[in-house]
Specification:
Elements lengths: L5 E4 L4 E5 L11 E5 L3 E4 L7 E5 L11 E5 L2 E7 L9 E4 L5 E4 L2 H6 L2 E5 L8 E6 L3
Parallel strand pairs: 7-9
Antiparallel strand pairs: 1-7, 2-6, 3-4, 3-5, 5-6, 7-11, 8-9, 8-10, 10-11
Length: 132
C-alpha cells in the first residue's frame, strides 16, 4: 500500500478488532469498521473509521485480531482537495488518504480528526486523530 499514516504523538486510546487471517495490513493503514467488529483496510469514500493499524498484520499468519490507534497526532495524506487548520477530515475514496469532512461524514462515522496544518492537494500534513 501507499500513504500509510506516520505517528507523530503516541496515541493513548486503542481498540482490538477481528481481521481475516488471509489479510495483510501494514502498520499505519487507515482502517474501515465492518460488521461484526471487524476491521479491513479502508478503500472507499465515507467508510466508517475504525482507527489506524498500530501493528503489522501479515497475510495467513494465523492471527485474527489487530490493534488500532484511536487518537494521537499523525502525518496523513490529503486526498486532493486540501484543507485549512481546524477543519474536520474524513476518509477519502483513495486508501490511506483524507479529505475535508461534510455533514454526512459525522452520521456515517467516517470523521478521522482535525487538521493541525493547512494542506494543499496531496500534501502530507498533521492531523489530531479522534478529536472533533
Amino acid at each position: 500500500m501507499a500513504d500509510e499514516a506516520t505517528c507523530i504523538e503516541t496515541p493513548t486510546r486503542f481498540a482490538r478488532y477481528t481481521v481475516a487471517d488471509g489479510t495483510g495490513i501494514p502498520i499505519g493503514t487507515m482502517l474501515k469498521l465492518t460488521d461484526p467488529n471487524t476491521a479491513i483496510a479502508h478503500s472507499g469514500d465515507g467508510d466508517a473509521f475504525a482507527g489506524i493499524a498500530w501493528e503489522e498484520k501479515s497475510a495467513s499468519d494465523g492471527i485474527t485480531e489487530i490493534t488500532a490507534a484511536l487518537n494521537g497526532v499523525w502525518d496523513l495524506t490529503d486526498g486532493g482537495g486540501g484543507s485549512a487548520v481546524g477543519e474536520l477530515l474524513s476518509l477519502d475514496g483513495t486508501a490511506n488518504e483524507v479529505r475535508l469532512a461534510v455533514e454526512a461524514d459525522i452520521i456515517t462515522g467516517s470523521v478521522v480528526g482535525k487538521s493541525l496544518e493547512t494542506a494543499s492537494a496531496n500534501e502530507v500534513f498533521r492531523v489530531r486523530v479522534g478529536e472533533w
